[in-house]
Amino acid sequence: MATQKMLKFVTIGREMPEKRDAASRSEDFHEIYREFAEAKAKEQASRCSQCGVPYCQSHCPLHNNIPDWLRLTAEGRTQEAYLRSQETNTFPEICGRICPQDRLCEGNCVIEQSGHGTVTIGAIEKYITDTAWEEGWITPVAPTQERPESIGIIGAGPGGLAAADRLRRMGFQVTVYDRHDRAGGLLIYGIPGFKLEKQVVERRTQQLVEGGVDFVLNVSVGEDISFDAIRGKHDAVLIATGVYKTRDLDIDNAAAKGVVRALDYLTASNRVDLGDEIPDYEDGELNARGKRVVVIGGGDTAMDCVRTAIRQGAQSVKCLYRRDRANMPGSQREVQNAEEEGVEFVWLSAPGAFTGHVTGEAMVAQERDVDDTGEIPTISAVRVQKMRLGAPDVSGRQSPELIEGADYDEPAELVIKALGFEPEELPRLWGVDGLEVTRWGTIKADYQTHQTSLPGVYAVGDIVRGASLVVWAIRDGREAADSIAGYLSGAARVAAE
Q1: Given phi > 0 = left and psi -120 to 50 = alpha, else beta, which region is 243?
Q2: Residue range 350-365, pLDDT digits in tens
Q3: In angstroms, how far is CA 246 from the centroid of its own chain?
Q4: Are residues 384 and 433 in the same domain?
Q5: How many CA atoms lie within 13 A of 408 on its CB side?
Q6: What is the bridge-based pairing of β-strands 259-261 and 457-459?
Q7: Residue 491 belongs to what domain range?
Q8: pLDDT of 2-27, one tens digit each?
């Protein structure tokens, strides 16, 4: 019976949920994909081949039981599909929206390799959990037994929230500290609403609050509260701060007015979307309206910036990337969405200098960031250097090489640097002795237990991995929660003896 519901990839073609047309979606920050209806979700799930070695599952960082919940969806057993989905994933509806499925599960689908088009795994995952919310199947955490041990989690991003959920379900007392005024980390302030509407994140944090997780917001560790104080208050501590320090450019006029960091730009836009008053947005510093915008970078953050600029009413938006389309790190699906919305990609290009002007007078790019009067120039153009791909580097990708004499100036009133993120120097910022870091500045933690060099202190997510995917942070958070539970259970046994 079950088999008859499946293996329909030969007769049924691949379909994504309907996508809002580029003109209308460019006017707002709502998600661009419409919901699957039940019949369409069942139909698309039935395309799964139920293969004996599910590469979709093995290439998912969470090892989600994808073939199982696809089969259950195809059979109309949506609640069971949700239960199976949430066994391995704390936030399936978030991963269904923002995971780069084209690089993970869908990119390794067996029927894709045979030319039939991948199963639309991400859209079905989103459908299953959105349905679960609508039907009331998702309820606050209710541990069967309370435990006295307390865990402090620093960082309310996906890694910290995933650990908080899992630990609370085991009955532990959990407190989450975050420097921002809302929980969610990059989910709430870094990822635009057209990919992840904010109420999707807010209902998850509200679920945790109702389940007994304490949130201490607007608190900066090292300033408002010391790391030692947090350690003293809790039986174990989990560091899940993420990485927020922006990589910079060593070029002329790098500090010109109108040159901004991607995270500052996206945070301002998301705060406005959430209803906050942001002076730097209102005065135009972090607002693309009417401007010629140049975004530097080729990752998912750059894609978020170019598509945000379009929605803010930019005059034009161009993305400079030093390699070609085939070698860019961002999602190809996002590149296509950006192109549909009017973004122009300038491949094999890198910034050589920022040209600016002071008090209205033209000023050529200098080797320093200010003129003789001490004034910072205002951006007027980007000196674009053309590149070609040479020999592969250590990552296996071809290295970009400069083409001499091919420079030109690209006019711009707003330049957004989306060059990736680096870790802050936490041991120094927090005044912590004995917290070991790697040569890259990330916290050194055991890759299985997530234990750091300090007893009872664990670390997960980007602060350990470097800038990575949300799904990896969720996996780390869940694993660390299990390690912390084992550590505290062992400590309790020792104390009892």
Answers
A1: beta
A2: 999 998 876 444 344 3
A3: 15
A4: no
A5: 8
A6: unpaired
A7: 150-243+423-496
A8: 456 765 565 666 677 889 999 999 99
